[in-house]
Amino acid sequence: MVKNICCIGAGYVGGPTMTVIAAKCPHIKVNVVDINTKRIEAWNHSDVSKIPIYEPGLSDLVQQARGRNLFFSTEVDQAIKEADMIFISVNTPTKTYGVGKGMAADLKYIELCARQIADVAEDDKIIVEKSTLPVRTAEALKNILDNTSKDVKFQILSNPEFLAEGTAVQDLLNPDRVLIGGEQTEEGRMAQKALVDVYANWVPSDRILTTNVWSSELSKLTANAFLAQRVSSINALSELCEKTEADVNEVARAIGTDSRIGSKFLKASVGFGGSCFQKDILNLVYISRSYGLQEVADYWEQVIIMNDHQKRRFASNIVKTLYNTVSGKKIAMLGWAFKKDTNDTRESASIYVADDLLNEQAEIVVYDPKVTAEQIYADLDYLNTRSSEENRKGVTVVNDPMECFDQAHAIAIMTEWDEFKDYDWKSIYNKMLKPAFLFDGRMILDHDKMEDIGFKMYTIGKG
Ligand SMILES: NC(=O)c1ccc[n+]([C@@H]2O[C@H](COP(=O)([O-])OP(=O)(O)OC[C@H]3O[C@@H](n4cnc5c(N)ncnc54)[C@H](O)[C@@H]3O)[C@@H](O)[C@H]2O)c1
Ligand SMILES: O=c1ccn([C@@H]2O[C@H](COP(=O)(O)OP(=O)(O)O[C@H]3O[C@H](CO)[C@@H](O)[C@H](O)[C@H]3O)[C@@H](O)[C@H]2O)c(=O)[nH]1
C-alpha cells in the first residue's frame, strides 16, 4: 500500500491534485515539491487565502490537510527518497526553440525530473506521469530511469489530469473518470493497482479506467482536442450567425438537445484560452506530422486556426464599429483571466485582443477581480510587440471596476465573471461617452435590455 507520495511541481495541477489526495487519504503523507521558492512560500503562507492558486474551495482543503499529511517544500531530493510513488506534474509548454519550435511539447523539465529521480532514488518507485505528454514519452522516461548504476526498479504509469481550472476542486472530488495507463506486465499491473487503490479512497471503482500506457497518454491529448474542436465549431458558426440573423445561443440549444451531440462546450466566445488547449493540439498536430500523417495534422490544426481568427475578428470588429479608429479612445476591458473563477491568464483571449487594440493606439483600462496588474503587464510584455513602457502607457489596470467607465468609448467583456452580470448597467451607461458601445464576448448580458438602456450592443454570434 502506498504510504508516501511525492509530487514534483506545485502548479495548477500538482497543488490542487495533491491537496485532494491528502484530504481524502489521511493515511498517506503527501510532499509537494517545486524549485520555485516563491511559489512554495505562497503555498505555506500562514494566511491560507494567499496560496498561489485561486480555485473555489481549495484554500479550505489546504487548511484542513496542510501540516497534517500535506507538505509543500523545495527539498526535492529528500521528498523523492522518502516516496513510494512519485507524480511528475511539471510544465510541458510548447517549444520556443529548435526542432518543433512553436508546435512540439518541450520535455526538458520532464527529463530533468527523471534524471533527478534516477540520481537520488535508493529503492523501487512507481513514477506517475501527471503532466500532459506526447504519446510514447513513458518510453523515454524508462530509458533514462533504467540507465542508472543502482539496483532500483521503476514502474511508469500514465495518469493524465482532466480537471478544468475554476472547477478544479469539484472535478477532482467528483471526476467523470480517472485514467491510469500501465505496462501490461505483472509488475505493471501491480503498480496500476497501487494507484487505483489511492483513488478508490473517494472515486467509485467504475470511474477508474485502466489501459495500456500509450492509450492513456494519447487519450489526454485527444480529450482536449475534442473539447477545443467543439468550441471552434460553435465559434465558426457564431460568425455565420452574425451574417444571417440566426442566434448562436439558439442554434447551440437546438443542436445540444440531440443526445448524440450533447449540450456542453457549445458556448460561443471570444476564443478559447488556457494553458492546455492550444499547446496540446499543436502537440497533436506535430506528432501526426512526425508520423507523416498530413491530413490528420491539417484536420486538427484547423481548430487552432479558427480560434486565432475568432480572437482577431473580435478586436477588428471593435475597431470597425468605432468608426474605423480607436486611436486615443478609452476602451474598458472587463476580465483578463482565460475563464471565470481562476486567476490564470495563460493564452487568454484578452491578451491578444488588447495587443491588437494597442496596435491601433487605443487607451485600455482593465479590470479583473482576480488577476494582478503585474500579471497583466507580464502577459503583454511576453508578446514582445512593443516596449514594456509602452504597454504601461497604453494599459491602466484598476482594482475598482467603476473606475473603468468614465468617458469610455466602449466596453469589451472578455471573461464571464458572474459579478459583471450584476453591475448597475444604467449608471455605467451614464458615465460613458455616447454612443456607448458594449461588446459582449461571452454572451453574459441581456442583449435587448442593454439596447433598451441605450448601449450600441454587439453580442458574439447574434445577428
Ligand atoms: N493547468 C491545468 O488546468 C492542467 C490540467 C491538466 C493537465 N495539465 C498539465 O499538467 C502539467 C502541469 O501544468 P500546470 O498548469 O500545473 O503547470 P505550472 O506551470 O502551473 O506548474 C508546474 C510547476 O513545475 C515546477 N517545476 C518545473 N520543473 C521542475 C523541476 N525539475 N523540479 C521541481 N519543480 C519543477 C515549476 O516551477 C512550476 O511551479 C502540464 O503538463 C499541463 O499540460 C494542466
Ligand atoms: O463552451 C465553451 C467552453 C469553454 N470555452 C473556453 O475554452 C477555454 C478552456 O475552458 P475549460 O476547458 O473549461 O478550462 P481548462 O482549464 O482549460 O480545461 C481544459 O484543459 C485542461 C488542461 O488539459 C483539461 O484538464 C480540462 O479537461 C479541459 O477542459 C476557456 O477559455 C473557456 O472560456 C468556450 O469558449 N466555450
General description of the model:
The structure is a single chain. The chain is α/β, with parallel strands linked by helices. It has two domains: 4-203, Rossmann fold (3-Layer(aba) Sandwich); 277-459, NAD(P)-binding Rossmann-like Domain (Rossmann fold, 3-Layer(aba) Sandwich). It contains 17 helices and 14 strands. The chain has helices at residues 14-24, 37-43, 58-65, 76-82, 108-120, 137-146, 168-173, 186-199, 213-244, 248-256, 277-290, 294-321, 349-359, 373-383, 388-394, 425-431, 447-453; strands spanning 4-8, 29-33, 70-73, 85-88, 125-129, 154-158, 178-182, 208-212, 330-334, 363-367, 395-397, 410-413, 437-440, 456-459. It has a six-stranded parallel sheet, with helices on both faces. It has a six-stranded parallel sheet with strand order 11-10-9-12-13-14, with helices on both faces. α11 runs antiparallel to α12 (294-321) and α12 crosses α13 (349-359). The longest helix is centred in the middle third of the chain and has 32 residues, at 213-244. 45% of the residues are buried. The model has no long low-confidence stretch (mean pLDDT 97). Bound molecules: nicotinamide-adenine-dinucleotide and uridine-5'-diphosphate-glucose (UPG). Nicotinamide-adenine-dinucleotide is lined by residues 8-14, 33-36, 39, 76, 89-92, 109, 112-113, 131-132, 161, 163, 165, 275-276.
Keyphrases for this structure?
463 residues; alpha/beta; Rossmann fold; 2 domains; 6-stranded parallel β-sheet; 17 helices; 14 strands; 44% helix; 14% strand; globular; binds nicotinamide-adenine-dinucleotide; binds uridine-5'-diphosphate-glucose; 6-PGluconate_DH-like_C_sf; NAD
